[in-house]
Amino acid sequence: MTRIGVLSDTHGLLDARVLEHFKDVDEIWHAGDIGSDDVLRRLREFKPTRAVFGNMDGGEVRYSLSEFYRFRVEDVNVLMTHIGGYPGHYNPWLIPWFRKSLEAKMTNDQSQMSNVIDLFVCGHSHILKVQYDSLFKFLTMNPGAAGKQGWQPCQTLLRFTIDGSQIKDLEVIELERK
Fold this sequence. Notes:
alpha/beta, 12 strands, 4 helices, five-stranded mixed beta sheet, Purple Acid Phosphatase, chain A, domain 2
């Protein structure tokens, strides 16, 4: 079992409460708009951290990360990017990847299994949303915004467990804006 903490859109602010809520996770995933090299460094010093850059990231953050990150945790294939969208409203450049994933799942072609996406993680909208995509057959997660920039009424995070091929024990964490 691997416990995961997911956040996005910190925009240079790493609220101490985030670290408190992520103290028992095994990994942290940041879906972009980190905002400063200091935030990324502090996350990496705290826990193993996977991250992508966002459209507002510049300098050190942008040069040290990629726009898309494909990886596997236990038996779950993950694709993470900052600007992704949600079922029925994805950014068009992602659709070919999603089609390849669906084709690999439907044909069970072992040579194409590296194309499979089981979990799609993105940020950007500042809107927390977890939704299963019944067309492409994967779970989408957007943790909302962990920073204070924007219009959202509270800061949000996600925490969940990957156990083999199962994604379970999902928790939504809301932090009152101070």
